[in-house]
Amino acid sequence: MSDVDDDMTPDELVTILDEENRRAVGYLSDEVRQDQDENLDRYLGRPYGDEDDGSSNAVSMDVAEVVDWATQEGQQTLQAHAQAQSQDPKATEAQGKLQIEGMKAQMRQQLDAQSAQHKAQMAEIEATTRKQIAELQANMDYQIAQMRIVAETQAQKDRTQAEMDLAYWKADKEHALARETSRMNGGGSGNVRFGGQVG
After folding, report:
1. Does any domain span residue 135?
2. What range does the domain containing 35 cover?
3. Which residues pair with 191 in a beta bridge?
4. Three-state SS for 197?
5. pLDDT digits (tens, 9 = 90+) for 106-162
6. Which is it for the CA torsion 104, 110, 111, 116, positive or negative?
7. Which ranges constitute the DSSP H helices of the chain?
8. Does the residue 27 lie in any domain?
């Protein structure tokens, strides 16, 4: 804060205080508002904005549950404290401390329980995702195996057909050679058929 002169008039003091107040409000607007907006998003369970496609977009409402519970408990504590103002101050202070410690313990327990539940849910999601990936991989392996079987079967058919074509070609050549040989040797009109000579 600016230095205050002993000879400063009330109007000058008011001016300085107004300036300091504007600076404080500007600081809150720039520095704190962002945190307030983010905290409000967590309280309302709004998405974080960095979710991946295909993944779960569920947002835990732990913050809202804890804040609402703590607000209710705090109101009850303040009401009880207000009602006890007419009682012994020391007893009232001790009771207030006990209630606050009890609230803290309950909040820790609730947060721990919610954290454990969240971890369990995440583990379940991870297990389900792993199972789906394994099933998809198994299905892909099966499809690849079927494709290989079909390809090998077709290849075997092609080889068999090629061997049969070659055998027929050889038989035709032998048949033609036998006829030519018979003709050159004057074998007459002997007939030659596939697989041997008849005449």
Report:
1. no
2. 1-46
3. 198
4. strand
5. 888 888 888 788 888 888 888 888 888 888 888 888 888 888 898 888 888 888 998
6. positive
7. 10-27, 33-44, 62-83, 89-184
8. yes
Residue 127 domain-assigned (yes or no): no
Neighbours of 135 (CB within 10 A): 10
Q: Dihedral of CA 26/31/35/41: which sign?
A: positive
**Which residues does 73 contact at the CB level (< 8 Å), separation at least 6?**
103, 106
Q: Contact, 65 vs 114, CB < 8 A?
A: yes
From its phi and psi, is residue 106 left (phi > 0), alpha (psi between -120 and 50) or beta?
alpha
DSSP secondary structure letter of residue 87: S
User: pTM for the whole thing?
Assistant: 0.33
- 93 to 80, 89, 100: CA distances (angstroms): 11, 6, 11
Give dist(CA 109, CA 114) in Å, integer: 9
| Total residues belonging to the chain | 199
| Structural domains counted in the chain | 1
Q: Which long-range contacts (CB under 8 A, 24 or more apart) does 49-52 make?
A: none
Instruction: Flag whether 159 is in a domain.
Output: no
Q: What confidence tens digit (pLDDT) does each residue in 52-101 have? A: 777 777 777 777 788 777 777 777 777 766 666 555 666 667 777 787 88
Residue 193's H or E segment, with its range, is strand 191-193
| Tally of CB atoms within 10 A around 197 | 14
Number of CB atoms found within 10 A of residue 174's CB: 14
